[in-house]
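We include this case.
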Amino acid sequence: MGNRFVDFMIYIALMIVLLGLINITFRLHKLSFVLGFFVLLGFLLVAVVSVVGMHNRFDWVWKLLRVFFGLALLDMLFVYLLLASKPEGFLPFAVAAIAGFFISSFNSKRKADDSKKADIKKTYEPGKYIASRSGSKFHAPKCDWAKKVKKSNAVWFDGKEEAKKAGYKADACIE
């Protein structure tokens, strides 16, 4: 799965779980509502921090998301069991929390693969092929995609084998 697809799925899971938490919290009464509301605000804060962390590709974000989805599921189950009138539509919220938990758990493999690229030394000297530290393909310098690589993320290679050993795949522009 591509990075963007996984990120998109996490965003969808976050949105569904937060909607579920809102739905359940606003069914509470009196003191339990006040406590639930502050818990909801905490979840919202963690969700915002997670989205910012995902956008900036921080390594710690996947652990935070795993904890977020796990605690959100436990909170939903706890409140669900406390409510006398059970809210309809609880199951999709719980499924989204479980899916988010597993996606964030298995995404640590992606981070392990990305850590190989972290070892790549950034160079600013032109070679035969260019890649972006945040990308997955290497390009010929004349390629349109090569021109879009930021100088701060540029990694140059003298040969195709060197780029492949670093974990990159050849783009279609490579002859």
The longest strand covers residues 129-132. Residues 82 and 129 are 61 Å apart (CA to CA). Strands lie at 129-132, 137-139, 154-157, 169-170. The chain has two domains: 3-114, 120-170.
